[in-house]
Amino acid sequence: MLKLKGGGIDLERSFSCGQAFRWQKVKAEENCWRGVVKDRCATIRKEGEILYINRPEEEEEDWTHYLSLDLNYGELEGLLGQNPKTQPCVETSAGIRLLRQDPFETTISFIVSANNNVKRIAGILERLSEHYGDKREDEDGYLYAAFPSPEQLAAASAENLKDLGAGYRAAYIQGAAEMVANGFDLETLRGVPAGEASKALQSLPGVGPKVASCIMLFALDFTEECPLDVWMKRVLRDLYAPLGEKEAVAEMARQFGPWTGAAQQYLFHYARTKSGK
DNA sequence: TGGCAGGGTCATA
DNA sequence: TATGACCCTGCC
């Protein structure tokens, strides 16, 4: 059993704010979530400020990194609190942590996210894993399906993917998986200029500017990325009017610097909470 | 029950 | 650069 200091993380907000799709609340227990991260299944329970994770102690660094427990989010919340316009989201979104996710899983997840809703996205990814991923058992005997490897998904037929509910995204999933399986190296994009990484990602089928931005923020450590979806566009109109979208993003980057992406997630969650979603 | 929105992308003009 | 089409489920 792995034991970590939680550092103010809010599991519910972090897992259900739309950055990851394979975490589910364990209903029988208080503040307890189970999820599959690439090929590992974990159950995380929070008691006070301590996280109990049913993983071996050697994985301490991995989970600290995944949950961003090594960063001081007090700094972000301080910045958000300084501006009366962004201040309200501190209350609704405190405890959200950007999860540092696997690049391939994130790529497929956000290809699936296009013109789609969170519930259906989660269902498609679950069926994708059940169908093509390795079946495994965690330390407690819980059976789960790992996220498929690029090779496993590349071998899938678009028709079969369609049957899993992916719709017109089926061909994108298969095509992107094939490119990665054939040597398109997502990892090497870390640290290259943002414009270059975005352009490279957009050479994958089903990946446009928004999905590229999500992959960069959620999986490749581009912490200044600010993905603009329909919700964030509304937020920017509300908060930064009369600035246009580009100017508003520039203003966010100026205010938040390396915390821009995390601020985006706080504001995104705020907007959705406010609308009752 | 019908009608539309849902964390966009792609093809076409 | 600007429009529509696109699979299909969930929700009002």
Textual characterization of the structure:
With 277 residues, the protein is α+β, with helices and mostly antiparallel strands. 49% of the residues lie in helices and 11% in strands. The protein has 14 helices and seven strands. It has helices at 11-16, 60-66, 74-82, 88-93, 103-113, 118-132, 150-154, 158-166, 170-181, 194-201, 209-219, 230-240, 245-256, 260-274, and strands at 2-5, 23-25, 32-37, 40-47, 50-53, 135-137, 143-145. The strands form two sheets. The chain has a five-stranded antiparallel β-sheet with strand order 1-5-4-3-2. Strand 3 and strand 4 (40-47) form a beta hairpin. The longest helix has 15 residues, at 118-132. The radius of gyration is 18 Å and the shape is globular. The mean pLDDT is 95. The chain binds a DNA duplex (13 and 12 nucleotides) through helix 5, helix 6, helix 8, helix 11 and helix 12.
